[in-house]
Amino acid sequence: MWRPGPTSRLRGPYYLACLLLILVATAAVAHPEDELCMPGEASLDPALCEQLAALDSADGRTARVTQPILDEDGVARSAGSTFRLYVTIGIQHILPGGLDHILFVLALFLTSTRLRALLVQITTFTVAHTATLGLAAAGVISPSGAVVEPLIAASIAFVALENLFVRDMTPWRPAIVFAFGLLHGLGFAGFFGELGLPPGQFWGALLGFNVGVEVGQLSVVLLALALVSVWRTVSRSPQADAHYRRWVVIPGSLLIGLVGLWWAIERTLLA
Question: Is the pTM of this model over 0.85?
Fold first, then answer.
């Protein structure tokens, strides 16, 4: 059973503030598609960049990409190469760009000091968003971004603010996380679908993108665990759990909840 260990009154807020500053400084927007088309080795091939440019056009009409995805040498990518490309895209969609998804995962992390509770929530979230990402990307369902994005923001606020009133994972939390995971999967699908993949490369790209998203999310969890581990190593306190909740869980959840509420209002008004 994992616990945060001894804590102090000063280092807890300091590490949390550092974590949030790192995340905010590296993630100014939630979905940085434009950065993927900047000149350089990490940019997407021209076909996908043309598709993204069309999405930003005045009339909003787009044409599906029909040419193969090309590698750096201008050669059509193999299935393995496409998979690796979209693993990278999936990671970049979370780190550094997916601040909304990062905050949701951190809200789950702050729910409980027990590792089992965290694993149950992360697994539930993964299963749910994988399902809706696959269905939406395959065209089975067609989510509206004007509806999905405000709901994603509201889900962040709900989970974070619930942490203020409960001290551990409640019996109903996995069901709530699953429902919110379905929403986040639709958010992933909105970005993934904009790439307009040609036939024959869809499933490799979908799998690679989902793997990349999971790598990004797990990186957030591992970073949070590392900060708590440092705190346990350098701190000494007989009231570890009380200090952890007072200096990390409550202020962290309140900050995440307020950001989620602001995004929900903003996205609703701009929809």
Answer: no
